[in-house]
Amino acid sequence: LGGGFEDEQGLLDAVPVEVFFVEDFGARYFLALRLALQERVTVASAVNPSTLLLFARTLAERGPEIAAALEQGSLGVEVADLALRARLLSRAHKDERAAVRVRDSIAAHGQARMRDAFPDLVGLVCWKGGSSPWYLAQLPHSYGELPTLDYGYCASEGCFGAPLSVEGAASVLVPHAHVIELAPEEELDDVRAGRRPTVLLDEAEPGRRYGVIVTTGAGLYRYDMNDIVEVTGLIGKAPLVVFRHKAGAMASLTGEMVGEAH
């Protein structure tokens, strides 16, 4: 949850990093919302859209508690680590207007909604490919009809694609930082075995699906991402791709990467 906030310490995030050291999962989400509500938040981003839904669910289920914490200037939840609690309390302020927004939303809808609690929200950022549409369809109930930008085709191995529009989930594969090779999905086993060559970016064909192999500046050499992407168009000679699924027997509803062994 980010916005135009900058305090005397030069901090730019509405949610201080200390929140992520709170061990209790529910308390962590509660505190993230409680502290963000006292700031002017304009964009909410999460890699997985299910995370945005968890924020909405936390606000819906614990709206009265969050409103009370804002009104009192308290944290609203217990934090066992006293040093961590002190740091979090230093960032917690009274905000009666935010408390009113939450309570007015409860009065209007029966449960508080993110769109009412964060009236300055102009957009969301999250993954939109793969199984994400199932989650995306649920976001408007709490967030309203906000434009949603895909994160782009990226992973812990590197960022390989950049989103160009809020329409759809396509990213343009960029050749500036990494070497990206593509293996036609139906030839993937042969490519892995060295029996067929890969395809370079300017050789990718719209409408076809490919496995992705990367060589990165961080030291990965011809690393198989085990991803299947579909080329949906071209920007010049660079392909626009959408992530479809992991290759092989893998399931990934929200980033959990569950395979047969699991």
3D structure, described in words:
- With 262 residues, the protein is α+β, with helices and mostly antiparallel strands.
- The chain has eight helices and 14 strands.
- The chain has helices at 25-36, 49-72, 82-91, 96-109, 114-117, 132-136, 140-143, 188-192; strands at 2-3, 41-45, 123-125, 148-149, 154-155, 158-159, 161-163, 171-173, 179-184, 209-215, 223-235, 238-246, 250-251, 258-259.
- The protein has a six-stranded antiparallel beta sheet with strand order 7-8-12-11-10-9, with no helix packed on it. It has a four-stranded mixed beta sheet with strand order 1-2-3-4, with no helix packed on it.
- Strand 11 and strand 12 form a beta hairpin.
- Helix 2 (49-72) crosses helix 4.
- The longest helix is centred in the first third of the chain and has 24 residues, at 49-72.
- The protein is elongated, with a radius of gyration of 22 Å.
